Amino acid sequence: MAMTTVDQLQAHASFLERRRRLYTGLGAAIFALLVVLGFIGAEEMNSGGFIQGLEKFFDYPSNIVSETAEAGTDWFERLWVYLPALLETINMAAVATIFGTVFAVFLSFAATRGLGVWPPLVPVARRIMDITRAFPELILALFLIFMLGSSPVPAIIAVAFHTAGALGKLFSEVNENIDRGPLEGMTAAGASWTQRMRWAVLPQVLPNYTSYMLLRFEINIRASAILGFVGAGGIGTELRKAISWANGADIAALFVLLFLTIMVIDQISGHVRRRLVGGMFAGAR
6-15, 84-93, 156-165: which range is least confident on average? Predict the structure, then answer.
């Protein structure tokens, strides 16, 4: 009797597995069909320009490389010329990250259950974080540039707005996974809410907070560079001008500066995050 039951379970499991594979295959086939139909429709609306453009795909990069080679050693001087624009982009990303992180901390505490916050405030804070994450930085920056004019300020506000929602979501998940023992102990001792957060919660979450903030800083540098295309200043504005004038040597210099900056910051922030996480686990042991 037991063998029959086991056989039935195995047969049922096999049936479910076959059905899952069938549904997965059908879903993949439908998705591929939609991609092909969408490509055909786009190609027809574009009057066949996509296929023709693919044939010239490497023409533009080759022109940039050839113009950079023609510039010779003078090309390195362009790196220094565009260095102030790069520093402006880094400053924009840093300021936006700092402001966004501050707001994210407040939102995360308000959105976490079990920390002693007013219960009706929890869903409100979560919806605020949803709203801030829903608006892309580019759309928000365009709206702010229309109201405030072309300057780094709209980009900083747009990036900080999105950063607050993204980091607030991550911070709230970190808050939910803390050890409740210290919090309960301080509550029993009569500590105030501020004291409980300061001494029982923050020491546990700060390493992860810092790690997420550094990761977001890398993302915000790229976002700030992109926002420069719409008039927010920084290296993106210079890149837009260089592309408009089809100056290959300047385009190459800007790309090299941006690539080196992101690579260096990625290495530094990665090292700091590893030290923080390693120290956190060492402290736990």
Answer: 6-15
Q: What is the pTM of this model?
A: 0.75
CA angle 134, 270, 100 (to 5 degrees): 35
Question: Do you know the residue count of the chain?
Answer: 285
The string of DSSP letters for 144-166 reads HHHHH-SSHHHHHHHHHHHHHHH
pLDDT on residue 149: 80
Rounded to an integer, what distance in angstroms lies between the CA atom of residue 194 and that of residue 223? 35
Q: How far apart are CA 165 and CA 125, in angstroms?
A: 10
Most distant pair of Cα atoms in the chain: their distance: 86
Q: How far is CA 86 from CA 91, 93, 157, in A?
A: 9, 11, 19
* Span between the terminal Cα atoms of the chain, in Å: 50
Q: Which of 2-6, 115-119, 193-197 has the lowest mean pLDDT?
A: 2-6
Token couple for 278:
């390693």
* Predicted confidence (pLDDT) at residue 4 exceeds the cutoff of 80: no
> 133-161 burial, b if ≥16 CB within 10 A, otherwise e?
beeebbebbbebbeeeeeebbbbbbbbbb
What pLDDT does 276 receive? 67
